[in-house]
Structures are given as structure tokens and as C-alpha cells.
Write a structure and sequence with these properties.
binds 4-(aminomethyl)benzoic acid, limulus clotting factor C, 326 residues, Thrombin, subunit H, serine-type endopeptidase activity, globular, 4 helices
């Protein structure tokens, strides 16, 4: 078989570049692993080079581009609930975050970090036009179906510091794994809210661990429990994210819902399990902004696969292999 020299070169460059990417791949949260799907989604990214929850720690500035803060319109400094960006026009949150007064106007704050400071991060505030709560949200009973979708008045300016979470596959089972909760919620039961966005890693427990403590727990809920660590008042509606080891990207697996106090011994946290509401979410997106789309959990943006990514490296290799001034 005759081998096209250019094809050989392309293959060699590809192999070399892939090798470089793989060398970086082991534990790095920036890199790519197996099982990727190429498309235009750039979901679940974190920014590591930039910059209570109970028992957590400060995030870096703009570490989690997927976080949204929900505020009363005109009051951007009081984030009363969290949310997760899932499309360029939708934020996922909890049904119980909907204010009692239906006339209450809301906005979301994006790229927020330190609430009291205006200088460390350039935030974006967008008005909420619809607060769609689940039709069978059980407000007075066991808080079943504590899920809501916010529709925004304008496009989210997606970029380095603002971007969607990856969306989970149906029936994703992560019992026994770690998840991360992000929020400006209270630092302990009835405690103050922090100024800086917090993060904490929690263990996903079998649903039975929550059923032992709370009435009416269903498979639509995700139970978390880790000694001295928890979400708390104000974290509600916010992201429970899981690092997909196949892509090293973050997928929104839960919505903070409720619990008995915060980090109380023997009292797990209850979260709405996003994978159980895939169809509901997709239907509401379709009904409100038909062109909007979620990013599947195994999505890797096309830009990361551009070939050749570096014209200088390409030229140099060609030069070494076929001659020239190098
Ligand atoms: C709340 O009140 C709340 N520890 C949220 C989560 C938890 C407790 C309370 C879970 O918003």
C-alpha cells in the first residue's frame, strides 16, 4: 500500500499531540479522558488557575462558571438561593426557592464570587422571566419534586467565567462516590452566610440512608452525608456536581433541597436527583426556548480537537521530517 506522506505527517502530529494531552491527563481536572463526544458544548469546566456550606472552603475567583445566585430584582447582594446554568437561557433550581408572593421579581447573578466586592469579578445580572416549578411539587409533605427551571430574559454571555454544567445521562448511579456542593448558604445551622462562594465535598449515600431519617424519600432524591460537612440554609436550589472521570468535566447531579439542620450528626442532606427529571427538564426547555440545548455529560467542545492546533509545531515537525530551515 502506498502511504501518503502528508497523511503520515498528520498522523504523527496527531499522535504526538494526543501523547502530550495524555501525559497531562492523569489527575488533572483540566484534561480529557476517554468516552468523549465531540460537539459544540463547553460544559462543566472549572477554572483552577484563577484565584458555607458547613465544613467547606472558599472557592477561587470564578472557579465554577456554572453557578448562579438567585436574588430579588435590584438586590444583587443578597443571594437567597443557588442555581445551575444548564443552557444559554435556563437555570436549574429548587421549587421551594420560588417566593411566596407571585409578584416578586427575580434576577440571577452570574460570575459572582465575593458578594461584598465589586472588583474581584465582573458579574452579569439577568432578569428571570419565568419560574417554572414542577407540577407535582409536594410543598407541604415530603418536598418531593423540589425542582424548578428559570427562564432568563436574555442570552447568558457564555465565556471563561460563565458556562453551563454538563447534563447527566438517565439513571446515573453515583452511590458511594463524592459530589461537590457549591453555594453562599449559611456556615452552620442558623448561622451567617459567607461573603465568598463556598465548596464542600460530600459522600453520596444509598437512598435508604435518607429514608431512615426522613419520611417519603423517593428514588428521585439524592442522599448525601459526610461527618461535619453539609449544605445549609441559602444553598438551596444550588448545584450538587459530580466530576465525570471520563471527561474530567462537572455534571449537575443534584439540586440542594432540605435536611434536618446542617451537618447535624445522623441527619443527611436531601437533594433532588437531576437524572430522574431529565424528561421534565428537556420538555420545559423545549416549550420555553425551543432553540436552547443542554450539554450532554460526555460533551467535549470541537475547539479542543482543532487540528492542527499549533501551526508552529506543525511547521517544525514538517521541517524536521522533510527538510527546511528549522
Ligand atoms: C435550607 O434550609 C437547607 N443540610 C438546605 C439544605 C439543608 C438544610 C437546610 C441540608 O435551605
Amino acid at each position: 500500500m502506498r502511504v501518503n506522506p502528508m497523511w503520515t505527517l498528520n498522523t504523527m502530529v496527531a499522535v504526538l499531540l494526543q501523547g502530550a494531552a495524555m501525559a497531562d491527563a492523569d489527575t488533572s481536572e483540566r484534561s480529557l479522558g476517554g468516552g468523549q463526544v465531540r460537539n459544540n458544548c463547553n460544559c462543566g469546566r472549572i477554572n483552577k488557575s484563577g484565584g458555607r456550606i458547613v465544613g467547606g472552603s472558599n472557592t477561587l475567583v470564578n472557579e465554577y462558571p456554572l453557578i448562579a445566585g438567585i436574588v430579588n430584582r435590584g438586590m444583587p447582594d443578597f443571594i437567597f438561593c443557588g442555581g445551575t446554568i444548564i443552557t444559554e437561557r435556563h437555570v436549574l433550581t429548587a421549587a421551594h426557592c420560588k417566593p411566596e408572593r407571585s409578584s416578586q421579581l427575580l434576577s440571577v447573578v452570574l460570575a459572582e464570587h465575593k458578594v461584598s466586592s465589586k472588583t474581584e469579578s465582573k458579574t452579569t445580572i439577568i432578569d428571570v422571566t419565568q419560574f417554572i416549578i414542577h407540577e407535582v411539587y409536594n410543598k407541604t409533605g415530603n418536598s418531593e419534586n423540589d425542582i424548578a427551571l428559570l427562564v432568563l430574559a436574555s442570552q447568558i454571555p457564555l465565556g471563561k467565567n460563565i458556562g453551563p454544567a454538563c447534563f447527566p445521562k438517565a439513571n446515573l448511579n453515583i452511590v458511594g462516590q463524592k459530589v461537590r456542593v457549591i453555594g453562599w448558604g449559611a456556615l452552620h445551622t442558623n448561622g451567617p452566610q459567607p461573603d465568598v462562594l463556598q465548596k464542600v465535598d460530600l459522600d453520596v449515600q444509598p437512598t435508604s440512608a435518607c429514608s431512615k431519617v426522613y419520611k417519603g424519600i423517593t428514588e428521585g432524591q439524592l442522599c448525601t452525608y459526610t461527618l461535619r460537612k453539609d449544605s445549609c440554609q441559602g444553598d438551596s436550589g444550588g448545584p450538587v456536581i459530580w466530576r465525570d472521570p471520563g471527561t474530567n468535566r462537572y455534571t449537575v447531579v443534584g439540586i440542594v433541597s432540605y435536611g434536618y439542620g446542617c451537618a447535624e450528626p445522623g441527619a443527611p442532606g436531601v437533594n433532588t436527583k437531576v437524572s430522574a427529571y431529565r424528561d421534565w427538564i428537556l420538555q420545559k426547555i423545549q416549550q420555553t426556548v425551543p432553540g436552547a440545548a443542554i450539554c450532554p455529560t460526555n460533551a467535549i467542545p470541537t475547539e479542543e480537537w482543532k487540528f492542527p492546533p499549533d501551526p508552529i509545531a506543525y511547521y517544525y515537525l514538517h521541517c524536521v521530517l522533510y527538510g527546511g530551515i528549522c
